[in-house]
Amino acid sequence: MRHGAPESEIQRVVAVIKDMGYDARVMPGAQRTAVGLVGNDGRVDASRLEGLPGVQEVIQVTKPYKQVSREWKADSTVIRLASGVTIGGNDVSVIAGPCSVESERQILDAARQVREAGASILRGGAWKPRSSPYSFQGLGKVGLKLLAKARQETGLLICTEAMDPEGVGWVAEVADIVQIGARNMQNFSLLKAAGRAKKPVLLKRGMAATIEELLLSAEYILAEGNPDVVLCERGVRGFDTTTRNLFDITAIPVVHKLSHLPIIADPSHGTGLREKVIPMARAAVAAGADGLMVEMHPNPDAALSDGAQSLAPEQFTQLMREIRAIAEVIGRRVAEPAPVEA
Ligand code: PEP
Ligand code: MN
Fold first, then answer.
1. Whose atoms come closest to the Cα of 235: which ligand?
2. Taking the chain, what is the end-to-end CA distance rounded to the nearest angstrom?
3. Where are the alpha helices (DSSP H) in 125-273?
4. Tally: H helices and E strands in the chain
5. Alpha-helix residue ranges (DSSP H) falling in 70-156
6. What's this model's pTM, rounded to 2 decimal places?
7. Ligand nearest to the CA of 125
8. pLDDT, tens only, 22-68
9. Is the CB of residue 129 below 6 angstroms from any atom belonging to ligand 1?
10. Residue nearest (by alpha carbon) to ligand 1 atom 10
11. Which of 71, 165, 193, 202 could form a disulfide with 179 if both were Cys (CB 3.0 to 4.6 A apart)?
12. Would the CB of 88 count as within 6 Å of ligand 1?
């Protein structure tokens, strides 16, 4: 719409789109309001829209994904979480904690340690997608309760994974961010359930997924009505076995160009090797990541999952110190944890 187009003109456009048999999404922006048309699987005859009062231009989104594209929405999405924490603005937000929630003692210690070092969001899986059925599968609902306790004690927000549509309901009740793991990036019923959840979603790139597939998976979530999606680069399968995955830092600027959604980086799964996490975290922040997801365990050698890539508390403190310096060079700031609620 033209800058300053009145509400009546916007509503007229909405009405015409609906009359054409599609759905309309009104998106106020910094410069002007855009009205998105959804529900078409091909080119739309825009002649009825072009002449309406207040319409400045009709843009055909050329990509297979629509609502996640920069063509659809030019302004970067800033996701506002509880306690004033944001992802996607100027802040670099850090999600840190163990791979899995193992015990009350372990998750509370981890929460205090990551908060002390300056992370604002606590991670920890209650349900774990493991390659082997004999590996630790997570504490399930007990794990969720422990995460809720950790939030209460530290004020940290919570990010934890849901593995199936039913689990989305349980996780969304407790967590501030619902994580969808790499192995589930194309679990379409899970994506739709996450799209109906009332919580932001962290969507990790599948280990063999192209960036276009990642964006199409995010589109499923937006198409169900949930606009708050954070993408996560966590490495893809390469031919070289030196590292667990091939950490694709290029994905960060590529996604920023193609999409308005924030993208964070996970150098823990991205490398699989503890001593490679800090250099790759620095690189991801330098490349413009909107945040990091990092595994830290109070005692990594005793971890029930992903110990080899988990930082010890003092290493995590060093990582935070170093990324603060890098963020400053590129005009950003590492988000501070919210104060503990009284
Ligand atoms: C995790 O975050 O612990 C995890 C299982 O990650 P990914 O889905 O990226 O493998
Ligand atoms: Mn893990």
1. 1
2. 45
3. 141-154, 165-174, 188-196, 211-223, 251-258, 267-271
4. 11, 13
5. 104-117, 141-154
6. 0.94
7. 1
8. 999 999 888 889 999 988 877 888 899 999 999 999 998 888 899 99
9. yes
10. 182
11. 202
12. no
Residue 270 is given by DSSP the state H
What pLDDT score does 62 carry?
83
Residue 138: CB within 6 Å of ligand 1?
no
Tell me, letter by letter, the H, E, C secondary structure of 1-28: CCCCCCHHHHHHHHHHHHHCCCEEEEEC
Q: Which of 113, 125, 119, 112 is nearest to 85 (CA)?
A: 119
Segments in the chain below pLDDT 50:
none
The 10s digit of each residue's pLDDT in 313-339 is 999 999 999 999 999 999 999 998 877
User: What is the pLDDT, as a whole number, of residue 43?
Assistant: 83
C-alpha 218/C-alpha 201 separation (Å) is: 9
pLDDT at site 342: 53
Q: Which atom of ligand 1 is nearest to the CA of 235?
A: 9
- For residue 259, with 0-12 CB atoms within 10 Å meaning exposed, 13-18 middle and 19 or more buried, which class applies? buried
Q: How far is the CA of 269 from the centre of ligand 1 (A)?
A: 7
Q: How far is the CA of 100 from the centre of ligand 2 (A)?
A: 7
Residue pointed to by tokens 């996560």: 232
What kind and span of H or E run contains 317? helix 313-329
Question: Is the separation of the CB atoms in 106 and 136 below 8 Å?
Answer: no
Instruction: Provide the residue type at 161 as one letter.
Output: E
